[in-house]
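To the team - fe (ii) ion complex, inputs and output below.
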Amino acid sequence: MTETQARAAAGTGPTSSEPAGRIDDGRAYGRPAGQWNPNLVETAAGTPAGELLRRYWHPVALSAEATSLPRNVRILGEDLVLFRDGRGRPGLVEPRCCHRGTTLYFGRVEDDGIRCPYHGWLFAVDGTCLDQPCEPDRGRNRASYRQPWYPVREYNGLIFAYMGPADRQPTFPRYDIFEGLRDDEEIVIIDHFAFGGPAEAPCNWFQTHENAMDPYHVFILHNAISGHQFDPKLEIWPRVDWQRHGWGVTASQDRDLPDGTVLHRVTEIRVPTIRAIPTPTLTVLGKTNNMSWAVPIDDTRTKVLAMVRKPKDRIAQGLPVYADGKNWFELDEEGHQRYPGDYETQVGQGPITLHSTEQLASSDRGVSMVRRQFLEQVQVVADGGDPVGVSFDPDEAPVSLRAGNYVVAPGAQTLATEYTFVDQ
Ligand code: FES
Ligand SMILES: [Fe+2]
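Output:
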């Protein structure tokens, strides 16, 4: 039964009352309206996907963005105010003051917290009300007031927040690739959306995230269409496979190099928003030196934050140059059309991609695996469980990443455990 026949049989959709004998030659007229799967894309509290997201720590800002000047931050569809009190503690609170509702964006940051500009109530980073200057005894009942707040942690230049239920707050995770930093190394944050584009993209986070399990687009988009956007070795057609793990999905791509070795490139996705994509310029071999988060600002805006470990005397990665010698910001409209990259194609899927109109093929198996695992975890949380990848053990060992550009002998099993910067 064709889709048109099925829809007609079900009595639904714009084609159900079409005259008999209409020619179905694929033209756009009468096509079904597309829909997205809400359990992949919704970010708001109370939605099934939003509740899964709220079981994890998320990077919400750069450490440098938490200052004595309050800053508006939007994350998972919630508007919040970020600040750093005079003792250096970052705070993340609801903007709307719990007294009479003006915004703390105009508040004054003091040693112990943020003071509302309207009637002067002072709130600590955990929302505790410390002062009510217009009330008797400066607020003899102030202990019964609390500004809505979220716990935050600083880690290697990013501020993370946990925005879920208090009794399910997991241990803050660390990652092995950032442990044991040597004196000549440092960790930096890069906030390009992807491949040198702007920090924020006007599209849902999931279509950005799942791209990490789509290795085939590397040869097409980043080579055949737009020229060598990465190391030319990535143009060699690889053997691709995907592996499902308890915590996420990996893609492995084996390329036979001219010298007889094999480039075993592994990319990695961890539930819910983590991607480890070893540098595609191949300036780093061995285990990856970076990982990133596809941060849902809300349902239709995404920010990508990457954490990179590197020698102090090397640049992390400059702005990539497209085929006409310009970086992303220097391309004009025609340049973006002639040399599209990740930003153009992912934003080009629309504010929220329409899953119902997609036609997934064999090369999309990794994307399917990521979606299936995410949907399973949405259900786990909906059923009252704890999702994968969270730990409540305060002594939990750092998470060990798998991703890397491993150059190995054919059939070799041993993979380098440390990254190596190489000259190019
Ligand atoms: S509205 Fe904030 S103190 Fe009154
Ligand atoms: Fe890409």
